[in-house]
Each structure stands twice: as C-alpha cells, then as structure tokens.
From TrEMBL:
Keywords: Isomerase, Metal-binding. Its EC number is 5.1.99.1. It comes from Croceitalea marina. This is Methylmalonyl-CoA epimerase. It comes from the Bacteria. The keyword Metal-binding applies. Pfam families: Glyoxalase_4 (PF13669). The gene is mce. Residues 3-131 form the VOC domain. The keyword rRNA processing does not apply. The lineage of its organism: Bacteria, Pseudomonadati, Bacteroidota, Flavobacteriia, Flavobacteriales. Belongs to the methylmalonyl-CoA epimerase family.
Length: 137
C-alpha cells in the first residue's frame, strides 16, 4: 500500500455536510459524483495532500444508509492507494484478510476499488484504490 488515498465519511445530508466541511477546511469541494451501483453520492475535498470523501446514501438499501442506521454519521472507511489492486487483493487474501470484492469494481474518483471486511481489520473498513488507466475499462 502506497499511502492513504482518502478518508470516507458517511453523512445524512450531502449539501449540509458540504457547507460544514467547506467552513472547516476553508475550501470548497472539488467534485460531486454519483455511484449508482453502490447507491451513493460522493463529494470530495482536498486539504493539503489529503482527500476527504463525503458519502450520502441515494436509497435506503445502500451500504451507507445501513451504516448510518447502525452507527450514525462519521468515519466510514480509510482508503489506501495501491499500484496493482488485483495483486494486492491476492496478497491480502493470502495473509488471511477477508476481501469483500474478489474482483475490483469501479468506484468514485476514477478508481478501481475493493474492500476488506472490518472483522479482519480491527473494526476498520479498508478500501483499496487504484487509478483507472484511460485504456482499461
């Protein structure tokens, strides 16, 4: 794993949260994106070298809606940048981690993503992210 790619925060109201985090960081979000397959709208902020992703459910069956129902708003996941997500999935499975996605899927911010089950990572949902090359898809 190369670095922390972003920290994901589950929110009930993306517009209200955008206003709050804009005040907190002193800068506006730079992107809003919907990932229909995950039932989520995302908003990204950059502060220094760090990115924060706000996640709002678009339907009551989405993972974000279920997370907020169980735990309320707050830190949802920590994402790590990787160079080769398929190799990293294989390595982590070999190390005994439970991978929630056998194959990477398209996520927000032009990334291939896969998640590790929090039961195998001390309660933290870990996301692996690899930049999608223009020639793949």
């Amino acid at each position: 794993m190369d670095k922390i790619e972003h920290i994901g925060i589950a929110v009930k109201d993306l517009e209200a949260s955008n206003q709050l985090f804009e005040k907190l960081f002193g800068t506006p979000h730079y992107k809003i994106e919907e990932v229909a397959t995950e039932g989520v709208r995302t908003s990204f902020f950059k502060t220094g070298p760090n990115k924060i992703e706000l996640l709002e459910a678009t339907n009551e069956d989405s993972p974000i809606a279920k997370f907020i129902d169980r735990k309320g708003e707050g830190v949802h996941h920590i994402a790590f940048a990787v160079e080769n997500i398929k190799q990293e999935i294989a390595r982590l499975k070999n190390e005994g981690f439970t991978v929630l996605n056998e194959e990477p899927k398209k996520g927000a911010d032009n990334k291939w993503v896969a998640f590790l089950h929090p039961k195998t990572t001390n309660g933290v949902l870990v996301e692996l992210c690899q930049e999608i090359n223009e020639n793949e898809g």
